[in-house]
Amino acid sequence: xxxxxxxxxxxxxxxxxxxxxxxxxxxxxxxxxxxxxxxxxxxxxxxxxxxxxxxxxxxxxxxxxxxxxxxxxxxxxxxxxxxxxxxxxxxxxxxxxxxxxxxxxxxxxxxxxxxxxxxxxxxxxxxxxxxxxxxxxxxxx
Length: 141
Known about the structure:
Blueprint lengths: L2 H19 L7 H13 L4 H8 L3 H13 L3 E5 L7 E5 L1 H25 L2 H22 L2
Antiparallel strand pairs: 1-2
GO molecular function: DNA binding; DNA-binding transcription factor activity
Pfam families: MarR_2
Protein name: MarR family transcriptional regulator
């Protein structure tokens, strides 16, 4: 397999894996993404979230509104620009995000154990390290 074909096959396979694992999600993907960004990156504005998610401001604002209404995110005036709101994940939001992540990990763990032999699981673990290096190269981290 040449490098271009490998890259395309990897892109398709990883995308399918992500979609397959998300089947167990109990919240909309946009809302889970917002919680994830706030959990990993700290407080952000709606514009920051829209940019990071690659969606319109309107789409991000809709997710934020739902999360604020559910008590998973709180908004406060931006300290440097009173026209903006700074969004923070709440303790309830963190707990919800942990449950979502645990559900995904549990579903993936069960599938791995049901599908692969111990030797194959070891090989898969080695691949995770390779994928982490690839992500670091692509993101500059």
